[in-house]
Design brief:
Elements: E1 3-9, H1 13-24, E2 29-33, E3 47-49, H2 53-63, H3 67-72, E4 77-81, E5 91-95, H4 100-110, E6 115-119, E7 122-127, E8 132-137, E9 142-150, E10 159-162, E11 165-168, H5 180-186, E12 191-198, E13 201-203, E14 213-215, E15 240-244, H6 247-255, H7 278-284, E16 292-297, E17 304-308, H8 316-324, E18 334-336, E19 339-346, E20 363-365, H9 375-393, H10 407-418, H11 442-453, H12 458-480, H13 486-495, H14 507-511, H15 518-521, H16 535-546, H17 548-565, H18 583-592, H19 597-601, H20 608-620
Parallel strand pairs: 1-2, 1-9, 2-6, 9-20
Antiparallel strand pairs: 3-5, 4-5, 7-8, 8-9, 10-11, 10-19, 12-19, 13-17, 13-18, 14-15, 15-16, 16-17
Helix pairs in contact: 1-9, 2-9, 2-11, 6-8, 11-12, 12-16
Length: 624
């Protein structure tokens, strides 16, 4: 019988990160997928990043994951979002090539030592009373392992719905994964149905783009990976276009709601709240006269244009009417019709903070099977599941990121503490300390972890240390070096609208002012001329200086969280027998099994009085 250290089921973004992390950590790894050509596929919008998600990609890269490297290979367009707002919400978004992105990922994976890729369907798991130790394939083959990570995405018992047409299937016309879901339920693992969808694809040669508002990319040293030093110029970036629905579009949708699987009872599962179908938007926001849509290229060479914001469960003939009612698409040819997909996922409260299913040793999950949505969320979970599976095999302490350290930590804590009844999406508003969880400092927050785990090599780690040594030197220069040319400084400040140019200033205080940049100060401060910074280094310096007061306040606020995280709760604590706990609190605490007072306080239904009871109980037991 074949045997591996780690088996990963599913080749989506979670499966890619999980299998690559395991292989890079020196463990014999098997990735099982239904179709090798669909590894790292982007079945919905081929973009990486966006609000909060772009920071997750940077975090993945800082820990030694792969998504940032893949996304930087050949983006069609890239830009920094929310540049008019504070650094806590700024993030990268790139339109990647639907075919080039997975092709590059597959090329890298094929060359990765310790990683074997096999096309096969998994129908059940090998296990005894409490431990999973392998998989059973559709043909009856048994393969043993020390850990199994399930990353089936939207394939598990997948159903494709368009109008009244319902048939088994996965995204992009692929087969569904059949059998594994019933095996999990037989093992006492609770599953539930979720839904997502994807809009039509349009032939670009049949679109009048002049009727849309052009949305260009952005110039600059923009990249997800800290390893990337080759940047795509504006001349090589493809534009997107903004259009809006028309009154005719809304009329067609309202007249055909009964034909939509979302309104005729065919679809009963919850879909992503922040990415609803167009008919759901029309009903939910009935007072809105129009809805914005984006025309986005799927690939550099082909003709496919992604109609962002136009996901629907209406039948094909109605989709034709809807598309032709849009400005610039009056004569458009639909290359691929919109559809909705329902699939099985595992209720996330059954996972612990390492993404292991509590009831079963050796069994982990990552990605949409945990109740998330999005490529970036999946990749982040896949990386963490892969790392923790390897650490468990090596009998080492688990790797758990805290909420003040990363968006990945926020996401995992939300899932395993609060659960979800709909596809979970990361948002900057979910993070209490988002000014600490910035795009620019992902490496500062996490690369030390990546190095200690073994995913960041010595050369890269040394470069990281040198980078921040130099940045800190520049900040010291700003703090300490005097500006000698007062007249030039006074003229410069006058030009910026500041009338106190004749008063002595140091660079640190000047850089805090709105409208003043690091590059502006270099001519005035001799010590800055020795630093050869790129745009990303400058962003680090400017953010650290301009927001220093706010950052210190958030760091102080986070200290209370850290104190509560350091008060552990015994895993065998019998909450049902604790006097003073509310009934709901007992039930929720028993379901989640929180590892600390801080995690217990975040559980829905556990109030401050219940937390006080827990602290008092620990004191009585002499545990604090």
């Amino acid at each position: 019988m074949n045997s591996f250290d780690v088996i990963v089921i599913g080749g989506g973004h979670a499966g890619v990160e999980a299998s690559m992390a395991s292989a890079h950590l020196g463990h014999k790894t098997l990735l099982l997928t239904l179709n090798k050509k669909m590894i790292a596929n982007t079945p919905c919008n081929p973009h990486i990043g966006g609000s909060a998600k772009g920071v997750v990609v940077r975090e993945i890269d800082a820990l030694g994951g792969m998504m940032g490297v893949f996304a930087d290979h050949h983006p069609l367009q890239i830009k920094m979002l929310n540049t008019g707002k504070g650094p806590g919400v700024q993030c990268l978004r790139a339109q990647v090539d639907k075919y080039g992105y997975p092709a590059f990922a597959q090329e890298i994976m094929d060359k990765t030592p310790n990683l074997e890729i096999k096309e096969a369907a998994v129908v059940s798991l090998l296990h005894n009373e409490d431990t999973v130790f392998g998989v059973v394939l559709e043909d009856g083959t048994e393969i043993e392992s020390k850990a199994v990570i399930i990353t089936t995405g939207t394939y598990m018992e997948g159903s494709i719905i368009s109008g009244n047409d319902v048939h088994p299937g996965g995204p992009d016309g692929e087969k569904a994964s059949i059998g594994l879901s019933s095996c999990l339920r037989a093992m006492g693992i609770e599953t539930f149905r979720l839904k997502t969808g994807t809009p039509p694809r349009i032939d670009k040669n049949t679109i009048d783009f002049a009727k849309g508002e052009i949305q260009p990319g952005q110039e600059g040293d923009l990249a997800f990976s800290f390893l990337t030093h080759r940047h795509i110029g504006m001349e090589k970036q493809l534009p997107c276009y903004l259009i809006y629905t028309t009154p005719k579009t809304l009329e067609i949708i309202r007249n055909n709601l009964g034909k939509s699987g979302l309104f005729n009872g065919l679809i009963t599962s919850a879909g992503p709240r922040y990415c609803p179908s167009i008919e759901s938007k029309v009903v939910r926001f009935a007072d809105k006269p129009r809805h914005q849509l984006f025309l986005e290229p799927e690939t550099e060479e082909g003709n496919s244009i992604y109609l962002q914001g136009f996901s629907t469960a209406l039948p094909h003939e109605v989709q034709e009417e809807m598309v032709h009612s849009l400005p610039g698409l009056e004569n458009a040819k639909i290359l691929k019709y919109s559809y909705q997909i329902e699939y099985d996922a595992v209720k996330p409260l059954q996972f612990d903070s390492t993404l292991r299913i509590r009831k079963w040793q050796g069994l982990y999950g990552a990605g949409q099977i945990c109740g998330t949505s999005g490529y970036e969320e999946a990749a982040g979970l896949g990386l963490m599941a892969g790392i923790n599976a390897c650490l468990a095999i090596e009998n080492k302490e688990p790797f758990i990121l805290k909420r003040n350290e990363s968006y990945i930590g926020v996401m995992i804590d939300d899932l395993v503490t609060k659960g979800t009844e709909e596809p979970y999406r990361l948002l900057s508003s979910r993070a209490e300390y988002r000014l600490l969880l910035r795009h620019d400092n992902a490496d500062l927050r996490l690369m030390n972890y990546g190095h200690n785990i073994g995913l960041i090599n010595e050369e890269r780690y040394a470069s990281f240390l040198k980078k921040y040594e130099t940045i800190n030197e520049a900040i010291k220069v700003l703090e300490n070096e005097k500006i000698e040319d007062r007249d030039s400084l006074s003229s410069y400040l006058d030009s910026k609208g500041y009338l106190d140019g004749n008063i002595g200033h140091r660079g640190f205080e000047l850089l805090k002012r709105p409208g003043i940049s690091y590059k502006d100060l270099v001519p005035f401060i001799k010590g800055l001329s020795s630093f050869n910074f790129d745009d990303n280094d400058i962003l680090c310096v400017e953010t650290a200086v301009k927001y220093s007061g706010y950052i210190k306040k958030e760091e102080k606020d986070a200290e209370y969280l850290l104190k509560m995280e350091k008060i552990p709760l015994p895993t065998d604590l019998d909450y049902s027998s604790l006097d003073g706990l509310a009934l709901e609190a007992r039930q929720k605490l028993d379901a989640v099994k929180p590892h600390s007072i801080a995690q217990a306080s975040r559980i829905s239904g556990v109030n401050p009085a219940d937390v006080s009871v827990l602290i008092l109980t620990l004191k009585k037991k002499g545990l604090i």
